[in-house]
Amino acid sequence: MSTTIKIFDTTLRDGEQSPGCSMNLMEKIQMAKQLEKLGVDIIEAGFAAASPGDLNAIKEIAATIKNTKVASLARANKSDIDKAWESIKNAVNPRIHTFIATSPIHMTYKLKMSPDEVMQRVDAMVKYAKKYVDDVEFSAEDATRSDIDYLAKIIKTAIDAGATTINIPDTVGYAMPDEYYEFLMQLRKKCPAMDNIDLSVHCHNDLGLAVANSLSALKAGASQIECTINGIGERAGNAALEEIIMAAVTRKDRNQYNFNINTTQIMKSSELLTNITGIKVQPNKAIVGANAFAHEAGIHQHGVLNNKATYEIMTSESIGLTKNKLVLGKHSGRHAFKDKIESMGYKLNAQEIDKAFACFKDLADKKKEVFDKDIDAIVARKKVEIPAVYTLDRFVINNGTTITSTALVVLKMNDSVEEKVATGDGPVDAAFKAIEEIVGKTLIMDDYMISSVTEVEDALGDATVKLMNNGNIFIGRGLSTDVIEASIKAYIDAINKILYEEQQNTEAV
Q1: Cα–Cα 20 to 30 A to 123, which of 69, 264, 399, 436?
Q2: What is the percent of the chain where pLDDT is above 90?
Q3: SS3 letters for 87-122?
């Protein structure tokens, strides 16, 4: 008999905790909407006690999402649980996810609590969370390094207190697949009450085994898997949603698991996350990497041309990967553009279509050919825009091997314009310094990247800038066939996000 496995996506919580993956409110809402479209069963929207901004973001997501459960993480204390409830109380399907560490090393050195004290805390805090919601998940942090007999007692305590989902995380990515399977099977034997709740697993990828461990857990009776898009997360990341799903779907001959995931939304989910965070997946990444469906070796190409199944065990269409083909030109009208983006799976309102179409027309004037990937880049970027304080009016670069690079940059702010000239170590550095003079901020550059959207010589340049301000990372993105213009737009985008965040914090005070 087939079993439907729940997918608990923690991209917006555990994933956002990975360095350089911070998102603003609008980006989190956009990502949550895409996760709902993907078909995940639970969205862990964040950790409400982390900051007022996190609490507000969870609250907005909870009010927006209608067809998916929304969970908020909380440590096993009343203050955290109160904040978690405040953040999700308006959700259609709310869940409180509370946790405490159960391994000897964590209890001794981090919690400084005895095993009995931890046991009492679990009982009290699960009961406390249960006063707010029926759906309570309990996680035993660092479960795989816990004493199994003690862990069984902790789980029984949590279930008796009202937990409906029990999570057994491999918090530090220490377990081996066969070891994890045996651990879960022994745990179920020692705690028969687990047969009456959802058994969840949350695997980290420190040894590159998160997906393998998650699949082993399914064999051991897990009914929920916690994972993230592209496998993002702390340290080496989490189990990658796309790899778990496609492994299970592709090897139906080895399992009877069903999922509520719409696999044709996998690529869009991956690309949206990349657009928001600026962190690209490596080309040879399974499922969503640029080379996942590429064939260079002659013998491989010959086989694929005769029968794709010779080297492709799944189709690119199954994950929603569109072909990189010419679709529109500079003479194409708004109606044709609208039809195209709808055929690519985008649902935009009239204002969003107008903005994206204006960018398309501008691009079509600069490029000979406009490809699906170009359209994806334009539409995805426009859907996560924030209100812009500054926009680029124009710039002039003076650069060469025997002169100091000089940049004149003119920015618009409301109905006024301001220009500054600066020198730097190259044209991009000079332009960035000119922008800083205009906005009156000296910022720390955390990272800067430039890549092409497609492979042709007049490809769109995709620039990513990461700026540090008050200890936080702000990610800016810019698109243009001119890489310097793309870089300038990315820098301005990051500054606009800084100003937007400062405005939101001021209004919250």
Answers
A1: 69
A2: 67
A3: HHCCCCCEEEEEEEECCHHHHHHHHCCCHHHHHHHH
CB 151 within 8 A of CB 138: no
CA dihedral 328, 333, 339, 345 (to 10 degrees): 60
Long-range contacts of 310-318 (CB under 8 A, 24+ apart): 313/250, 314/246, 314/249, 314/250, 316/292, 317/264, 318/246, 318/249, 318/263, 318/264
Cβ burial of 179 (10 Å; 0-12, 13-18, 19+) is middle
For residue 196, give the DSSP letter: G
pLDDT single digits (tens) 144-201: 999 999 999 999 999 999 999 999 999 999 999 999 999 999 999 999 999 999 999 9
Assign 435 to helix, strand or coil: helix
Reported residue count of the chain is 509
- Assess contact for 94 and 59: CB atoms under 8 A: no
Helix axis angle, 483-508 to 52-64, nearest 10°: 100
Instruction: Measure the CA–CA gap between 41 and 258, rounded to whole angstroms.
Output: 12
Half-sphere exposure of 43 (CA within 13 A, CB side): 34
Tell me: pLDDT of 295 over 50: no
> Long-range contacts: 326-332, Cβ < 8 Å, 24+?
326/369, 326/370, 326/371, 327/370, 327/371, 327/372, 327/375, 328/360, 328/364, 328/370, 328/375, 329/364, 329/369, 329/370, 330/361, 330/364, 330/365, 332/364
Q: Do the beta carbons of residue 273 and residue 31 sit within 8 Å?
A: yes
Token pair listed for 497: 């996000």
CA atoms within 13 A on the CB side of 58: 33
CA dihedral in degrees (372, 373, 379, 380; nearest 10)? 140
pLDDT tens column, 326-363: 567 777 788 888 887 777 777 788 888 888 888 888 88
Q: What is the rounded distance in angstroms from the CA atom of residue 70 to the CA atom of residue 66?
A: 9
Euclidean distance between CA atoms 190 and 141, whole angstroms: 19
Cβ–Cβ contacts within 10 Å for residue 418, how many? 14
Q: How many alpha carbons lie under 13 Å from residue 168 in its C-beta half-sphere?
A: 34
* Direct distance between the N- and C-terminal alpha carbons of the chain, in angstroms, rounded to an integer: 55
Most distant CA pair in the chain: distance in Å?
A: 77
Spatial distance between the Cα atoms of 373 and 463, rounded to a whole number of angstroms? 15
Gap between the Cα atoms of 388 and 390, Å rounded? 5
pTM for the model: 0.83
Q: Is the dihedral of CA 337, 342, 345, 347 positive or negative?
A: positive
Q: Which long-range contacts does 289-298 make (Cβ < 8 Å, 24+ apart)?
A: 292/316, 293/321
With CA atoms as reference, report the closest residue to 84 among 34, 126, 33, 40.
126
DSSP of 288-327 = TSTTTT---SHHHHHHHHH-GGGT-SS-GGGGTPPP--EE
Which residues contact residue 332 at a Cβ distance below 8 angstroms, ignoring those fewer than 6 apart? 364
